[in-house]
Predict the 3D structure of the following.
Amino acid sequence: MKLLIAFIFSSITFGAFTEVRYDLSTHKEKQISRTKNKKVLIFLSPSCPCSQKQFDYINSLAKKFNNIEFIGFSSNKHISKKKALEYFDQFKINFPIFIDQDLKFANKMNALKTPHIFLLNEKEEVIYQGAVTNKRSPELSTKFYLNDVLTALKNNKELPYKESKALGCYIAR
């Protein structure tokens, strides 16, 4: 069963997207990156308390692991561009966050909750998906899934996790 799950995750790719979206971090239309770098895709929502509590921590990981491309998506069909801007403008954002109000990216990746993380290798295959930490707030966490996976990747070690249960609010579809 674990082998089947691993196959399903590795067969999901980010691939088919080369489009321009509004980037909440720069306030500009921007093409979503198609580099062959490792990527962390992060599905976020301004209205989700769990997403809100994890944002500063995710932002710090983007700065710490600057050799890995972080790409965020504000995925909620009920959150307007204006509301998303009001929320994300509070932060000095270290990575692009694209509006995904039509849920094209959330649906492509089968993202369920916010925050929901997908780590992609150079072939754009999912090598980790799930939660950032094991609690809704990093301050209360005892497991730091994303940090541990990125550290292992940086050190060319086997990933300690392939998946974890995403915590947070369901993406409004």
About this structure: Residues 1-13 have pLDDT under 50 and may be disordered. The radius of gyration is 15 Å. The chain has five helices and nine strands. The longest helix spans residues 49-64.
